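Sample pair:
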Amino acid sequence: MNFQILNVILYPKNKDLKPRFLTFKEGKINIITGTSQKGKSAIISIIDYCLGSGECNIPIGLIRETTEVFAIYVKINNEFFFFGRENFDDHKSKMYFYKEESNSDKKIELRSNKWLRNKEDYAINTLYFKSFMNDIAGFKNIETGDNQSSFDYAASFRDTAAFQFQTQNIIANPTTMFYKTDSWEHLQKLKTIFPLILGYKSYEIIDLEREISELERVKNRKVITFEQIKAQCMSSNQFRHFGLNL
């Protein structure tokens, strides 16, 4: 999947103001500079939030108080998409989604605040968005742990955030290399998708490894059961032999 972010967009609560566009040059390394406390670090959190994050790490303060919708405009495999989200506390499961079509009026609307009057026309839930992104990124429904684990969730495109973002706290942390891998859940997912991302394992190999692991677990359970039955039989024979001697 070829994925490029072309714009980060902030739609203001004050409709007298125009949307704020941050434009990235396609196919280039884009460097953002500025003085401290001006919102540079918030860009990562905005992008992550617009890509379906289960939590909102956009800093509390001016940017959240004045923005109605956070959005990104992206190019995926030569197609263009708009992804947006409102305030997390009020709309945890809602997103705004639009696949660009040539000669569509909606494309023009999204360049201004006009579309906000009919924003429900663009509304989807985050589950649909994640399913869409999993399909377009080629993720299959593979799980990250055994069936007894509370961390047994399917890996998805969301887990690739570990390779996309390098925040200040990650760079300054000598024991952490990837975004969000300081939590056990994300670390387990990373172990599953890392070989796929690097390309040295396929889904077929992972499925075979899981099948082998399951067969080994079944074998081990049967060996334990056999040893228990064997011990019981030996104990019973010894008792019977002792009784005959009496």
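Residues 187 and 215 are 25 Å apart (CA to CA).
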